[in-house]
Write a structure and sequence with these properties.
The protein is mainly β. The protein contains 2 helices and 8 strands; from the N terminus they run H-H-E-E-E-E-E-E-E-E. A 4-stranded mixed sheet has the order 1-2-7-8, with no helix packed on it. It has a two-stranded antiparallel sheet with strand order 3-4. The chain is globular.
């Protein structure tokens, strides 16, 4: 793949930003979205304990389990990866094959692969 064909993380993530509109009940409730792309979360929902920030990710089935990358990646050198600990409360992981969203607590996953 040539450099011109590589997608930015925002462009790649665009399709699953709809994770608030499908899948699990808490994600469907997510009526709040950030005003700009500079926030680390994509959606917010409110439950009994307050507002919960959700970072939407696209996942896949690998070895019978849901797999996704719980980090963001810069699209320019040094291509640093940053985890979401302390900046989001949940991942909304969308599986395109089944069109299902799983709500996963950020503290329940690793920092490089989940």
């Amino acid at each position: 793949m040539t450099r011109s064909r590589l997608m930015t993380p925002s462009a790649k993530g665009g399709p699953h930003r709809g994770c608030g509109d499908q899948g699990s009940r808490p994600c469907r409730q997510a009526g709040l979205v950030p005003l700009s792309g500079s926030q680390r979360y994509d959606r917010v929902f409110e439950d009994d304990s307050g507002f919960q920030r959700v970072q939407c990710k696209t996942g896949r089935i690998e070895g019978g389990a849901v797999e996704f990358r719980p980090v963001s990646a810069a699209n320019r050198p040094p291509y640093a990866r940053e985890d979401y600990r302390g900046q989001v409360d949940y991942f909304g992981v969308w599986l395109p094959e089944s069109d299902v969203v799983y709500l996963v607590p950020v503290d329940d996953v690793g920092v490089s692969k989940a």
